Amino acid sequence: MALLAYSPVAMAQAIPNKDTTETVMADTTVDAIADSAAANMVDDAALSDASDDEMVPQESAGFHKQLKTKFIEGSAGFMSLVALALVLGLAFCIERIIYLTLSEINAKRFMEDVGSRVEAGDIEGAKDLCRTTRGPVASICYQGLARIGESIDNIERSIVSYGSVQSANLEKGCSWITLFISMAPSLGFLGTVIGMVMAFDQIRLAGDINTTIVAAGMKVALITTIFGIIVALILQIFYNYILSKIEHITSQMEESAITLLDTIMKYKLTGNGQDGQKGA
What is the Cα–Cα distance from 16 to 22, expressed in whole angstroms? Predict the structure, then answer.
């Protein structure tokens, strides 16, 4: 009887608990899934960083590619003319900006140096200063000092005449810039008209109004117009900047001419220029 009573107990201890086994298996499965999810998240983060690093050059390359594509789509013949107008217009703008920048000086300080030398009677020193200084202001002053022995009216006429020549030199090439400003949108509009004509020709050949044919012609027309207007806007900005510099230098020339005439008048009134005036 003892053996019979012991046997079920021993058997119960020998057989593992089913619920415990299932719990352990479930925990193991959950841990494996969590580890797999964490690994996937790390991989996704690494791929995301790599894709972000690659997006910048792709975007920049895409912009140039899109610009090239639009240029070709807008009828290469007319787009080339618009691009040529832009290049030539920018060339004239850059040349004028460099010339005007080199023509600018500190006119106030320059006139103070010239005036001090004239008051001291060093006319040749004042002329040398004008010769070694760049710009139209110095050139006008040199013309006035070169005729210091003449009457004040002759000096004034000389300064005014030479000032007109210098003003013309400042505005040299500006007419070409205005030409390209007007030409760029005109070429764009011409491409628009030709694109519309091409669209109607394709409709006539197809014998039916197809939206695809009409859209293709309209696209060429609008692209040429857009590029022409953009070129005109760019050149107009540079042109206005050039005009502002010309006005500034012209104002310096006028102020310097008045200052020089006053200095020469004082020099003559002190009696330093009487001998030269008599000889004239």
Answer: 11
Name the CA dihedral angle for 95, 101, 107, 108, rounded to a multiple of 10 degrees: 160
How many C-beta atoms surround the C-beta of residue 117 within 10 A?
A: 20
Q: Which of 228, 22, 262 is nearest to 141 (CA)?
A: 262
Amino acid identity, residue 153? D
* Tens of pLDDT, residues 95-150: 999 999 999 999 899 999 999 999 888 889 999 999 999 999 999 999 999 988 88
pLDDT for 66-92, tens place per residue? 655 665 565 666 778 888 999 999 999
Question: Please, what is the end-to-end C-alpha distance for the chain in angstroms?
Answer: 160
Q: In 18-160, where do the E strands start and end?
A: none
Q: What pTM did the predictor assign?
A: 0.68
Rounded distance, CA 230 to CA 105, Å?
34
Dihedral, 98, 103, 108, 112 alpha carbons, nearest 10: 140
CB neighbours (10 Å) of residue 261?
15
- DSSP class of residue 139 equals H
Under 8 Å between Cβ of 129 and 135: no
